[in-house]
Structure formats: C-alpha cells, structure tokens
Predict the 3D structure of the following.
Amino acid sequence: MSLASWFRWNEPPHRISQRSPTEMVVETLMMELSWQTKQAEKQQRERENEYRKIKTGVDYGWLVSYPKQSYDISPGERLQLEDMCSKIHPSYCGPVILRFRQVITEYEPEVQEVSRLFRSVLQEAAEKIKEEEEAKKLARQWNTKNKTSLSLTTFKSRAKISPFISDIKTISEDVERGTQPTRRIWSMPEFRNAK
C-alpha cells in the first residue's frame, strides 16, 4: 500500500461550492441583521445597568451574568426577511447595509424594533430598485423609438426629389403654358422642362 493513498495527494482538489449571488446577498444581509440585533441587545443591557445604578446607587453589574443571546427572530419573520433579501440586487447589498446602520444609529432601537427597521430598509431598497428598472425600461423604449424614427428619416432623405418635374397641376402652370418662357439672365442657368 502506497503512502499517497493515505494522504490522498493524487485526488483532485475539492472545489468550494459556488453559491449564487442571491444566496450571498441573503446571507450577508441576514448576518448584518443578527449582528445589529446583538449590538442592540448589548446596548439595552447597558442602559438597564445604568438605570439600576442610578436607581439603587450601587453597581452590581459584576455579579450579573447574561445569556449569550436572549432575543431571537421568529422563524416566520426570518423567512419573510430572507424572501425580501432575495429580491435585493447584489449591487445594492452594500448600500442597504449602510442605510440600515445609519437608521440604527439614528433611532437607537430596542432589540424587538431592529427587525422592523431592517424590513423598512429592505422595502425602501426594493422600491428604489423597482423605480430604476422602470426608468431603464422607459429609456430602452425611448431609444428604440428614436432609432426607428431616425431610420425612417434616413429612408425618406434617400428618395430623390426633382423640383422641376411634378405631376401636380396648378393654376400658375396653366397660365404659364400660354406664354413663351423668358430668357434668363446670363449668370443664371436655364432650366427647362423636358417633355
């Protein structure tokens, strides 16, 4: 038995499973939500400790042990948020995270309010994406319409127009028929209708 079979050097390297961009967006946004939830929980504990310290005048914070994570989002709400995250385009993932952090900093929410703020940021981003898609669609329609109208004008401009030969009968033509055409000035060329 060879040593190579023990160490499996001859086997091709295993490729890391390729995840779709949508899965990456969902995972990234949900990790941000869980991190912000933990931070809000930590800040809430600190506020409660400060309140107790002010109320009792004694700091017993060193005696208190906190559970690792006491608040968790319900499975139904988590599924709804993941579904909303899947509708976010990968290019909007960063701006959504920045907007979410900005909202968290502005409001300093309680732990229970973090998921609602996250939902509102996702809805705002989804509306913005929808508006941009509609604007792109209108721009494409406009460009297509302009291209066809330009092609019609170039087609029309290719048609040769002879100003001296016309099939349209006018009153002035009937009047001119009875008279002899006058000679033009020598610097002007003479145009005659060849009939």
Summary: Residues 111-158 form the longest helix (48 residues). The two ends are 107 Å apart (CA to CA). The mean pLDDT is 78.
